[in-house]
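Suppose you are handed a protein chain with no further information: no name, no annotation, nothing but its sequence. What can you learn? This example shows the usual starting point.
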Amino acid sequence: MSVVPVNILMAPGEKAATLTVTNHGTGNTAIQIRAYAWSQKGDEDQLTASDDVVVSPPLATLAPGADQVVRLILRKTPQGREATYRILLDQIPPPSEPGVVHIVLRLSIPIFAQPQTRATQNVQYHIEIDAGQMVLIGVNDGLRHDAIRDIELTASDGRKLKAAPGSSPYILSGDTRRWNIAAQAPLPLPSETLRLTGHSDAGAVEEQVRVVAPQ
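A reasonable first move is to predict its three-dimensional structure. Written in structure tokens, the prediction is:
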């Protein structure tokens, strides 16, 4: 099963979008699609049931090789800042069979809905050392999300330190993200400065980031 696109951006004033689900299997497959409001807490995504986005159809069965166009309708206009949602697409397992294990898919697709006013991201970074763990913290006080990938920190002794694999790149408007950094002793000292590089939706990231006391 595949889905196109893998993220959805609704421009200012846009009220609807579509995605296409394709069944590449050899048998029928049933799917369920639900929409949630999306926020963040630390490095955890928070999904809350919401009727701001209407999914049509919410249930469908696809024959082998068939496509299903799913329509997403935004019922609530974003005010002042970007609104963020996720849709969860679940493959519904077929009836159980003796001795057969069915593996089903769950896909999580982000939706970014832009407000009428111009919205930009503004992420400020700092580093904390907490219980022997080095953490890069990004605070986005802008009006839209950003996404940072390929995070690398260069210490004063030349060591290259990277974010733990599997971390989500997104930092939503008004939220704070924490990325654990793989580092061995000696850890940087408070007031020390490291060089941060990466790639974000706004372009290349290259700046000096200070180590501060845990807040």
